[in-house]
Amino acid sequence: AILVYRVFRNYHKLPIKVLHAVLHILAFLFAVVAVKAVFEFHDSRRIPNLYSLHSWIGLVALVLFGVQWVSGLITFLVPQMPQSLRGAYLPVHVSFGSGLFVFIIGVCISGITEKNIFSQAYPALETREVLGNALGVCLVCFGAVIYYLVTHPAYRRVELVPPERRALNQQ
User: Fold this and answer.
1) Which overall architecture, per CATH, does domain 4-159 show?
2) Integer angstrom CA distances of residue 137 from 68, 104, 113, 130, 132
3) What pLDDT is attached to residue 13?
4) What is the pLDDT of residue 168?
5) For this UniProt entry, which segments traverse the membrane (predicted)?
6) Which of 21, 135, 145, 153 is most buried, by CB atoms within 10 Å?
Protein backbone atom coordinates (compact mmCIF):
# COMPACT_ATOMS: atom_id res chain seq x y z
CA ALA A 1 0.00 0.00 0.00
CA ILE A 2 2.84 2.36 0.80
CA LEU A 3 4.15 2.03 -2.77
CA VAL A 4 0.96 2.61 -4.78
CA TYR A 5 1.82 6.26 -5.36
CA ARG A 6 5.22 5.17 -6.70
CA VAL A 7 4.03 2.24 -8.82
CA PHE A 8 1.03 4.06 -10.31
CA ARG A 9 2.66 7.48 -10.34
CA ASN A 10 1.42 8.45 -13.81
CA TYR A 11 -2.27 7.72 -13.15
CA HIS A 12 -5.07 9.92 -11.85
CA LYS A 13 -4.90 10.42 -8.13
CA LEU A 14 -8.40 9.45 -6.92
CA PRO A 15 -8.24 5.73 -7.87
CA ILE A 16 -4.75 5.57 -6.36
CA LYS A 17 -6.02 7.16 -3.13
CA VAL A 18 -8.80 4.60 -2.93
CA LEU A 19 -6.41 1.70 -3.62
CA HIS A 20 -3.98 3.04 -1.00
CA ALA A 21 -6.80 3.27 1.57
CA VAL A 22 -8.24 -0.17 0.73
CA LEU A 23 -4.86 -1.91 0.94
CA HIS A 24 -4.17 -0.24 4.28
CA ILE A 25 -7.55 -1.15 5.75
CA LEU A 26 -7.00 -4.75 4.64
CA ALA A 27 -3.58 -4.73 6.32
CA PHE A 28 -5.14 -3.26 9.46
CA LEU A 29 -7.91 -5.88 9.51
CA PHE A 30 -5.38 -8.69 9.02
CA ALA A 31 -3.33 -7.28 11.91
CA VAL A 32 -6.41 -7.13 14.16
CA VAL A 33 -7.29 -10.74 13.29
CA ALA A 34 -3.68 -11.76 14.01
CA VAL A 35 -3.69 -10.03 17.40
CA LYS A 36 -7.01 -11.70 18.26
CA ALA A 37 -5.53 -15.08 17.28
CA VAL A 38 -2.50 -14.47 19.50
CA PHE A 39 -4.71 -13.58 22.47
CA GLU A 40 -6.80 -16.73 21.92
CA PHE A 41 -3.67 -18.87 21.59
CA HIS A 42 -2.20 -17.41 24.77
CA ASP A 43 -5.48 -17.90 26.63
CA SER A 44 -5.74 -21.53 25.51
CA ARG A 45 -2.22 -22.23 26.79
CA ARG A 46 -2.56 -20.06 29.90
CA ILE A 47 0.22 -17.77 28.69
CA PRO A 48 -0.10 -14.20 29.95
CA ASN A 49 -0.99 -11.54 27.39
CA LEU A 50 0.89 -8.28 26.90
CA TYR A 51 3.89 -9.27 29.00
CA SER A 52 6.73 -8.68 26.52
CA LEU A 53 8.24 -5.65 24.86
CA HIS A 54 7.17 -7.11 21.50
CA SER A 55 3.53 -7.22 22.57
CA TRP A 56 3.63 -3.68 23.96
CA ILE A 57 5.20 -2.08 20.91
CA GLY A 58 3.06 -4.24 18.64
CA LEU A 59 -0.10 -2.94 20.28
CA VAL A 60 1.20 0.64 20.08
CA ALA A 61 1.97 0.10 16.38
CA LEU A 62 -1.53 -1.26 15.76
CA VAL A 63 -3.17 1.73 17.46
CA LEU A 64 -0.93 4.21 15.62
CA PHE A 65 -1.66 2.44 12.34
CA GLY A 66 -5.40 2.83 12.97
CA VAL A 67 -4.99 6.51 13.85
CA GLN A 68 -2.88 7.07 10.72
CA TRP A 69 -5.51 5.36 8.56
CA VAL A 70 -8.46 7.31 9.99
CA SER A 71 -6.63 10.64 9.78
CA GLY A 72 -5.63 9.90 6.18
CA LEU A 73 -9.17 8.87 5.28
CA ILE A 74 -10.64 12.06 6.72
CA THR A 75 -7.98 14.35 5.27
CA PHE A 76 -7.57 12.91 1.79
CA LEU A 77 -10.82 11.16 0.88
CA VAL A 78 -13.44 13.52 2.30
CA PRO A 79 -14.22 15.82 -0.66
CA GLN A 80 -15.08 18.82 1.54
CA MET A 81 -11.59 18.95 3.06
CA PRO A 82 -9.83 22.13 1.90
CA GLN A 83 -6.89 21.60 -0.46
CA SER A 84 -4.72 23.84 1.74
CA LEU A 85 -5.25 21.52 4.72
CA ARG A 86 -4.48 18.48 2.59
CA GLY A 87 -1.28 20.09 1.36
CA ALA A 88 -0.24 21.03 4.88
CA TYR A 89 -0.97 17.56 6.29
CA LEU A 90 0.57 15.54 3.43
CA PRO A 91 4.22 15.80 4.64
CA VAL A 92 3.12 14.81 8.15
CA HIS A 93 1.14 11.86 6.78
CA VAL A 94 4.03 10.66 4.61
CA SER A 95 6.65 11.09 7.36
CA PHE A 96 4.50 9.48 10.03
CA GLY A 97 3.55 6.63 7.69
CA SER A 98 7.18 6.01 6.73
CA GLY A 99 8.24 6.09 10.36
CA LEU A 100 5.40 3.77 11.30
CA PHE A 101 6.49 1.36 8.55
CA VAL A 102 10.02 1.26 10.01
CA PHE A 103 8.54 0.86 13.50
CA ILE A 104 6.42 -2.10 12.36
CA ILE A 105 9.50 -3.75 10.81
CA GLY A 106 11.07 -3.41 14.26
CA VAL A 107 8.00 -4.99 15.87
CA CYS A 108 8.26 -7.94 13.46
CA ILE A 109 11.97 -8.39 14.20
CA SER A 110 11.36 -8.26 17.95
CA GLY A 111 8.67 -10.94 17.55
CA ILE A 112 10.99 -13.20 15.57
CA THR A 113 13.74 -12.68 18.15
CA GLU A 114 11.35 -13.42 21.00
CA LYS A 115 10.18 -16.63 19.34
CA ASN A 116 13.77 -17.71 18.66
CA ILE A 117 14.93 -16.98 22.21
CA PHE A 118 12.08 -19.07 23.67
CA SER A 119 13.33 -22.05 21.66
CA GLN A 120 15.63 -24.42 23.53
CA ALA A 121 17.46 -25.07 20.25
CA TYR A 122 18.31 -21.42 19.59
CA PRO A 123 21.92 -21.61 20.81
CA ALA A 124 22.51 -24.52 18.41
CA LEU A 125 20.95 -22.56 15.52
CA GLU A 126 18.88 -25.38 14.13
CA THR A 127 16.77 -24.98 10.99
CA ARG A 128 13.86 -23.11 12.59
CA GLU A 129 16.14 -20.63 14.32
CA VAL A 130 18.26 -20.03 11.22
CA LEU A 131 15.06 -19.49 9.25
CA GLY A 132 13.90 -16.95 11.85
CA ASN A 133 17.20 -15.07 11.66
CA ALA A 134 17.13 -15.15 7.85
CA LEU A 135 13.56 -13.84 7.87
CA GLY A 136 14.69 -11.00 10.13
CA VAL A 137 17.51 -10.09 7.74
CA CYS A 138 15.07 -10.23 4.81
CA LEU A 139 12.67 -7.93 6.67
CA VAL A 140 15.45 -5.40 7.24
CA CYS A 141 16.41 -5.51 3.55
CA PHE A 142 12.76 -5.28 2.48
CA GLY A 143 12.21 -2.33 4.80
CA ALA A 144 15.31 -0.56 3.50
CA VAL A 145 14.25 -0.96 -0.14
CA ILE A 146 10.69 0.20 0.52
CA TYR A 147 11.87 3.16 2.61
CA TYR A 148 14.29 4.16 -0.16
CA LEU A 149 11.57 4.00 -2.82
CA VAL A 150 9.16 6.01 -0.68
CA THR A 151 11.64 8.73 0.25
CA HIS A 152 13.75 9.08 -2.92
CA PRO A 153 12.58 12.03 -5.05
CA ALA A 154 13.13 10.19 -8.35
CA TYR A 155 10.21 7.89 -7.55
CA ARG A 156 7.72 10.56 -6.53
CA ARG A 157 4.32 10.69 -8.14
CA VAL A 158 4.06 12.93 -11.20
CA GLU A 159 1.18 15.40 -10.88
CA LEU A 160 -1.11 15.15 -13.91
CA VAL A 161 -2.87 18.40 -13.06
CA PRO A 162 -1.00 21.65 -13.82
CA PRO A 163 -0.22 23.69 -10.68
CA GLU A 164 -2.62 26.49 -11.65
CA ARG A 165 -5.55 24.01 -11.77
CA ARG A 166 -4.63 22.05 -8.63
CA ALA A 167 -6.79 24.20 -6.34
CA LEU A 168 -9.81 23.41 -8.49
CA ASN A 169 -9.11 19.71 -8.60
CA GLN A 170 -10.26 17.76 -5.54
CA GLN A 171 -8.82 14.51 -6.85
Assistant:
1) Up-down Bundle (1.20)
2) 27, 14, 11, 11, 9
3) 87
4) 52
5) 21-39, 51-78, 90-112, 132-150
6) 21
